[in-house]
Amino acid sequence: MADDDDGDKQHDATPHRRQQAREEGQVVKSQDLGSATMLVVGLLAMWYLGNGLATSFARITREHLGGEAWMRVDVHLFLSHIVTLSADVGMALLPVLGTLVLAGVLVNLGQVGFLFLPQKLAMDWQRINPLSNANRIFSTTSAVQLGFGLLKVALISTVAGISLWGERERVMILSDQEAGPIATYLFSVTFWTSLKVGASLLILAVFDYGYAYWKHEQDLKMSHQEMREEIKSQQGDPQVASRRRQIQRQLALNRLSEVVPKADVIVTNPTELAIALKYDPETMAAPVLLAKGAGVLAQRIRRLALENQVPVVERKELARALYATVEVNEAVPADQYAAVAEVIRYIYQLKGKKLPGQRAAA
Question: Concatenated DSSP letters for 54-71?
Fold first, then answer.
């Protein structure tokens, strides 16, 4: 019976699915988190570097706006002054702008890591086609984003209103003060109000990132059908793989039917392993492993040995050692000579044969 819930995404995404989504640019990212972080970092940079920045701009103002009216002199001197003025302003703003750039890079790397997608630079007309994007425009995600936008407006208005309402009494007496203290006070009120707004937006952005993470995980979830397709793409069609294993097993069994009857002895574990050995003193320097098997193959080797009257000898340790260290058609290693020679000698005695060394001694 077919699954009724093939379209329901119930399975967590596989590592391959996650990597594929990342290569397509589907990552967890909150634009609000980046914007709020940049706002807070910028305000803190202005607060920390404000004195130095004000001093630098005061010096620039004295040097370039005082003294001789340099804009009336020749063009070359005018251009030289413009270059000098631009360099001075740039050097004055460099700490603040550098801090903002660094914060922007870090907050984006913290969200998505290093991600290079040159294919996203290509023009995709479907992304600006209102007909093909109607579902995306009128989706749950769009509704949530709209709700977050309205919430941000309300939050900014509320925080700013509360902050300014608390300063209403001092604002009423500003007219009695001089321009300097008024400017200082207005800057202080503006700065701290902006910082409170930025901190509130940052908190809201954390929730926005949490929603983006949850939505990303939901989008990556896989249905039963997608899981089956994933398994097929990664491991191949199960039917084809099963058929391949069947053929390999049949080839192995056919080979056993050819080589086991030629063996001199079968060393067993006794039921888990079976090793077929052959030794011809005239042509071989050492016994050779003709076949080995575990489980079903071991049973097949023992059955063939009984059918072809090949002696079966139980040597647990020897069977394990030969199965683990010797491949098919390889000679027995020197450290196993003594154990294998004992088995070969035993088989020769059963058959009434003598090894060449025994005949020479006789």
Answer: HHHHHHHHHHHHSSS-GG
